[in-house]
Amino acid sequence: MSHALIDVHSADDSAVRLDALAALSQRLLDRCRAAGATQAEVSCSEDAGLSVNVRMGEVETVESTRDRGIGVTVYFGKRKGTASTADLREESLAATVDQACAIARFTEDDDASGLADADLMARPGADGRFDEYDAWHPWALDADAAVDLALACEAAGRDADPRIANSDGASVSTSKGLSVYANSHGFVGAERGSHHSIGCALIAGEGEHMQREGWYSVALAESDLDAPASIGRRAAERTLARLDPRPLATGSYPVLFQAEVARSLIGHLLGAVSGGALYRRASFLLDSVGTPLFPDWFNIFERPFLERGFQSSAYDAEGVATRESSLIEGGVLQRYVLGSYSARKLGLQTTGNAGGVHNLEIPANAGGLQDLLRGMDRGLLVTGLMGQGVNAVTGDYSRGASGFWVERGEIRHAVDGITIAGNLKQMFATIEAVGSDIDPRSHVRTGSILLGRMTVAGGE
């Protein structure tokens, strides 16, 4: 087997390389069995990428990356050992297995350890392969072309208005990767994926009145990216809108989270219902399955089989079959987000979420951003968040924010240097609307989210 890494510019030999990684994983599993392991799992990956950064019309960095990794985990009963390497020489692979076994022999028994149950493993199609959900779109992009795209993006933004006097630069990146996960249940899963992005950040104003803002586009296929010039112009519009912020009187107001920051609210929910936080008793949503958390019209669905979904997969990080299901239905928490280890710690069964969730959709009950602004009438539109002021145990929420003050359904002026505060349980319960303006740049697909009221600490 060739030990060369995949090349971002090479002919597509990915299917052959996946087969080679699958064969390598089987050899490693055989070594683990021969060493006496009762169970074992192997992860193999190869990645290649290119990224460029420019600033003020000049190239700052050009980086080409190539990485590989082999991870081996063995179980001797309920004792676990893990070791990894990037060296594919046979002596290195043998040493990695030996090291994992040595670690396992000196660890304590853990009743929750071990592979996920064999009968939960995903099953491939008739051809022995799993659906890739249209995730493989390598971009034949060389450094010169990438630099040209980044320069065009930044130039479109800088040329949009003379008030844009500076730039934090523009970037273009492309990457592709292969991964294989195999275990001693006989499961072998092989996946290919690509990821591309273009972004720009600009600075307007002078001295203490400078404002920074930006925009970006990400996609699995290059054809789905926004045009570089449109990204630059969008970054300019957002930066100019931030100029001349005014203070805001401290008070209690309706708060509208624009789509790109609204998904952070869903992220806080996921953190609270994930197995690690639950079995450590570090969540404000302990024992909450079956409990109403949101209004009765609010739903969150997991969609692991979306074409070109950012987190689409037929199986999770343990080989467990994924499935479409509700996380929130009719406002009620339907389940937790569990892998096999956390599930066993809680006396439950894995939900097929080892490694995270697979594409969440939050259906809208309202129109786009303008409709939500009119519905809010008077309040705060949040477009940026800062800090990590969320207490996972109590749900208390306090974060720095920036955005715009809204009167009579229209944006009046920018605001920054403010803090928004509340408690996540109350915030979830007082959601009034979810917009149809979905931000497609994430596996959490939500529009803007309007909350009935939050405490806003302003500069007055």
UniProtKB/TrEMBL annotation:
Domain Metalloprotease TldD/E C-terminal residue range list: 250-458
MF-aspect GO terms: metallopeptidase activity
EC number per UniProt: 3.4.24.-
InterPro entries for the chain: Metalloprtase-TldD/E_C (IPR045569), Metalloprtase-TldD/E_cen_dom (IPR045570), Metalloprtase-TldD/E_N (IPR002510), PmbA (IPR047657), TldD/PmbA_N (IPR035068), TldD/PmbA_sf (IPR036059)
All copies of domain Metalloprotease TldD/E central, residue ranges: 137-243
Protease recorded as keyword: yes
Domain annotation Metalloprotease TldD/E N-terminal: ranges: 40-104
Record's keyword terms, sorted: Hydrolase, Metalloprotease, Protease
Family annotation (Pfam families): PmbA_TldD_1st (PF01523), PmbA_TldD_2nd (PF19290), PmbA_TldD_3rd (PF19289)
Family label: Belongs to the peptidase U62 family.
UniProt name for this protein: Metalloprotease PmbA
